User: Fold this.
Amino acid sequence: MADRFFRHLQASEGEVFQLGRITIIFKAGPKETLGAFTLCEAIEPPDSGAGRHRHGYDEVFRILEGRYEFEIGENGQDKRMVCAGETLFVPGGTAHAFKSLGPGIGRQLIVSSPGGIFDAFIREVATAMSGTDSSPKTGVDFRAIAARHGIEFLS
Assistant:
């Protein structure tokens, strides 16, 4: 049981998912945090990110590299530039979107609380996107998958 509390991952370690151009690396999940939170690193090329959505869990975004534009609120009326070294908290139920602005790769740590919801969503999306041969499936219904995990895409 002690290893659950003293898990040490190197920078390149974790459970890796490739969703199109975005790489998500899970560093700690509900098993390691007793359900308190999920921690992942997201690596996003310019012009990638997440469209306007909302969900019941809280999120903290810590920008490690690059510049992001966050749009907060039902119509994205609160726009914020968040750069390397900066942190943004988005409470559950708040509509939000974000995009990596470039020119280089954006990297952020994302903490979602409680744990287990965001990671389950990403796992299901990754499974749906993986084809039976060497090519990914097309026509994945992200909105239906999201809805099963309490995530509503608004745009």
In short: The chain has one domain: 11-153. The chain has four helices and eleven strands.
